[in-house]
Design goal:
Elements (H helix, E strand, L loop, with lengths): L6 H5 L2 E5 L4 H16 L3 E6 L8 H6 L5 E5 L24 H10 L1 H11 L3 E5 L4 H9 L3 E4 L4 H13 L12 E2 L8 E2 L6 H4 L3 H15 L2 E4 L3 H15 L3 E3 L3 H5 L3 H6 L11 H7 L6 E5 L8 H14 L3 E4 L11 H15 L3 E4 L5 H6 L3 E6 L3 H9 L4 E3 L6 H11 L3 E3 L18 H12 L3 H20 L5 H25 L1
Parallel strand pairs: 1-2, 1-4, 2-3, 4-5, 5-8, 8-9, 10-11, 10-13, 11-12, 13-14, 14-15
Antiparallel strand pairs: 6-7
């Protein structure tokens, strides 16, 4: 008697997603998990209790019944207070090693879960490089979720291959990034510390690259119409398979209710006076200023930003975050309160001290431009909204992203930051108010250059919306990848029967 198989059962994919406990990393991996669940994949997100607050509400809002969260308790680490399970802008530096230690101790229990859950494939953040070997042991595909852009990864490969930064005489002398589709220049000061000199992150990034080679392929939150030339360049030069599946926030946060809760815990929310304030403004008249969830500025830099916005002479909304005063008279909060009082009286500015519903704000017709640190999530969200940007990169791959916005696509103007800094340090560079004013005045002005930037940004915004529709590039790639994974599972299923 012939053995038969249930083809429908064989085609039902089960996946495990493993986000890394940094807000920006978690948000994009969870959004992608929701995207796969939308397409019928049975998804389990493995994380710790302290990492759920940035996405639990989004999962609760999710219409798909194909997604769930599995919690793993964070290990107790000597010297690490309970509840410190994620990295934020306010994580004390002395606790960073203990959090990393706790994350490393999660490897064994998570690997055991992999074996118990028996997923058909694993998607993990790049900072869990060991998961590629874990998937290989189970004989299933591993997809590594690479943070940032294709251009940033291409630029890193250029630097690793040609070492152009070692051939200049000073840290501030520009050098060309060889082998890229465009002539892009940087300085040593703008490179990540682990690129300039070997440290523990140098070894981590090397391990990440090795795990990518072991993986079935990589996922990047991008779309072909945005940086397709660098997607093709990256795949050709590395010889690896990669899928641009973005913009993931646009796929899964189309309703206002989804946009309202994405990335923020309820206790961090402020009263929504910003909406009434924005409603009172004319179209394209307001500058949105936000430096992401991990920014850390000195009081001196905050003062320069504040004075620049005041001198700018136009309306703005600034997500300024929360700060602890360090004993100085008046302190940063005292200064910001005085500043806020002045601009509120004139109805010229609005400050948000906690978490901001960024997707809703960017969608508002009053917003005409963005000041950004060039973090990849904010960059893509601004592109979706069709908004040009003034760029003020801080750390990670953000200086590479600035090159894409300013030099390649022409939808950004550089404020002129000269020095990369670590994410949990304030740094010693102070960008002066006159430089900020010059950039944002150009961005929001009525000159030919500003109008052309806006036109190009709007074209990309429309392309972002089309790419996730049936027949669009990202839609086709996501469907194709899922079909490919189904075929692999069916092939494996048939092989067992044979």
């Amino acid at each position: 008697m012939e053995t038969t198989i249930d083809v429908g059962e064989a085609e039902m994919l089960k996946a495990v997603f493993l986000p890394f406990p940094i807000t920006s990393h978690t948000i994009r991996v969870v959004d992608t998990a929701r995207l796969f669940a939308m397409h019928g994949v049975d998804v389990t997100i493995i994380t710790t209790p302290g990492n759920t607050k940035v996405f639990q509400t989004s999962i609760d809002h999710c219409d798909s019944g194909h997604i769930r969260i599995h919690l793993v308790n964070f290990p107790g680490i000597p010297g690490l207070p309970q509840g410190f399970e994620t990295f934020t802008a306010h994580t004390p530096q002395h606790l960073v090693p203990q959090i990393f230690e706790g994350i490393s101790l999660l490897q064994d229990p998570i690997q055991q879960l992999f074996a118990t859950m028996k997923p058909d494939f694993i998607v993990s953040d790049m900072f869990f490089p060991w998961s590629a070997d874990a998937a290989a042991e189970l004989g299933i595909p591993h997809l590594i979720y690479l943070g940032g852009s294709y251009i940033s990864r291409s630029a890193r490969n250029s630097i690793e291959q040609y070492a152009p930064h070692t051939k200049v005489d000073s840290d501030s002398e520009p050098f060309l990034l060889p082998g890229l589709p465009h002539k892009l220049h940087m300085t040593r000061l703008q490179l990540p510390a682990q690129t300039r000199e070997r440290n523990h992150l140098t070894e981590l990034m090397k391990t990440v690259k090795e795990s990518e080679k072991k993986s079935y392929g990589s996922l990047i939150n991008s779309f072909y119409e945005f940086e397709g030339i660098y997607e093709e360049h990256y795949k050709t030069t590395t010889g690896t398979k990669s899928w641009s599946v973005g913009p993931v926030s646009l796929w899964v946060n189309q309703d206002e209710s989804d946009k309202d809760v994405r990335g923020g815990a309820s206790e961090e929310r402020e009263p929504e006076g910003w909406l009434t304030w924005l409603d009172s403004k004319t179209e394209d008249s307001v500058l949105y200023v936000c430096f992401g969830s991990m920014n850390k500025f000195s009081t001196s830099q905050l003062v320069e930003i504040a004075h620049a916005l005041e001198d700018f002479g136009h309306d703005f909304i600034w997500v300024v975050g929360k700060f602890e005063d360090q004993g100085e008279i008046g302190g940063v909060n005292g200064f910001l309160k005085e500043f806020e009082n002045r601009v509120v009286v004139k109805s010229r500015g609005y400050l948000i001290r906690g978490w901001a519903p960024q997707l809703l704000i960017l969608d508002h017709p009053a917003i005409g431009g963005v000041v950004t640190h060039c973090g990849w999530n904010t960059t893509l969200e601004s592109v979706i909204a069709g908004l040009p940007m003034a760029t003020m990169p801080l750390f990670a791959e953000q200086f590479y992203n600035e090159k894409l916005l300013v030099d390649v696509l022409g939808i950004g103007v550089s404020i002129g930051v000269k020095k990369w800094k670590k994410w949990n340090e304030v740094g010693d560079e102070i960008v002066k108010r006159e430089n900020i004013v010059k950039a944002i005045s150009l961005l929001m002005g009525g000159g030919e250059e500003a109008l052309e930037m806006r036109r190009r940004a709007r074209v990309l915004g429309e392309a972002a919306k089309k790419t996730i529709q049936p027949g669009g590039c990202s839609h086709t790639k996501v469907k194709g990848l899922i079909d490919e994974l189904k075929a692999l599972k069916l092939q494996k299923f048939n092989h067992k029967i044979a």
